[in-house]
Amino acid sequence: MGKKGDLSDFERGMVVGARRAGLSISETADLLGFSRTTISRVYREWSEKEKISSERQFCGRKCLVDARGQRRMARLVRADRKATVTQITTRYNQGRQKSISERTIRRTLRQMGYSSRRPHRVPLLSAKNRKLRLQFAQAHRNWTIEDWKNVAWSDESRFLLRHSDGRVRIWRQQHESMDPSCLVSTVQAGGGGVMVWGIFSWHSLGPLVPIEHRCNATAYLSIVADHVHPFMTTMYPTSDGYFQQDNAPCHKAGIISDWFLEHDNEFTVLKWPPQSPDLNPIEHLWDVVEWEIRIMDVQLTNLRQLCDAIMSIWTKLSEECFQHLVESMPRRIEAVLKAKGGPTRY
Fold first, then answer.
1. pLDDT single digits (tens) 115-163
2. Which ranges carry the Transposase Tc1-like domain (predicted)?
3. Which of 44, 45, 111, 216 is deepest in the core (most CB within 10 A)?
4. What is the pTM of this model?
5. 268-269 and 193-200: which strand pairing?
């Protein structure tokens, strides 16, 4: 049976070679498994035009959107990233004699590598904050991993008992919208939550402290005195450690600043740029804890169980996990430099 579809350049060369070697059309067809018509056509094209390529890529209907049209479409997308396919189609067809459909626009965008995705959520950065982030990155661009090992990272985080995820999707038929198996229950404020404060460095995980009420200056002073101080003096007995904290109001209170000033001979408070969770590796530890809570086999029913689960997960975090995060700091700094102080993917 003859081969269906176009022959490759190699197969066409085999046909020409066999015919030039003296084989008949029938003998070449039996040898290569192609039809006699194909053998005759390929050899004739080679004899008359020296053609050995199928040129299949030039066959078929002409593309409605040429390279110039793709550049125009890319400009429209970059001008308005939130535009729908309908809006892009309308703008693309303005001033054109021949309009194209939304389906063509969607297919062309996909061929160009564009796809509809959820945007990353990042802090809103003012021009001043961008400048401060850039200055921080420039000041620490030459820090090595060994330098970052001297930093202790800290932060607060809140975990909800009932986590609401708007991205959940289910399979159902049209009449099953209110079927109990197709519903997701919600509660106000996530059913309550647990706030914790934690600290870690490349050398060790520090304590994880539950915060029963809101974290004001008085509560944070207790954390600093009871947990930060012993951790820093233990991890960095030669007073070469840096303590990192963000710019939350309770961290900048007068009593906190006075306490750090009294202990400035034991460790240094790292001057931290505003709105920079992407630079703080502890944020990724919170993500790990959150994920472990979500995949637990046992459904947590109260805040006590939630708090116990958080504490248990924290103590089981591996060295490889938190050390790898510290070792990512040079890359985080370079990302901020590249973004000129803007938000990054970390």
1. 887 777 778 889 999 999 999 999 999 999 999 999 999 999 999 887 6
2. 70-142
3. 45
4. 0.69
5. unpaired
Q: Which residues pair with 198 in a beta bridge?
A: 155, 208
Give 197's DSSP letter.
Answer: E
- In angstroms, the CA 248 to CA 277 distance is 12
Q: Which long-range contacts (CB under 8 A, 24 or more apart) does 25-34 make?
A: 29/2, 33/1, 33/2, 33/3, 34/2, 34/3, 34/7
DSSP state string for 236-252: -TTS--EE-----GGGG
The answer to whether the beta carbons of residues 12 and 53 sit under 8 Å apart is yes
Tokens of 135: 């200055």
296, amino acid identity? M
What is the per-residue DSSP string for 301-312? Answer: -SHHHHHHHHHH
Q: Where would I find the H helices in the chain?
A: 9-20, 25-32, 36-49, 67-79, 85-93, 102-111, 127-139, 145-148, 217-223, 229-235, 254-262, 282-294, 303-315, 319-327, 329-338
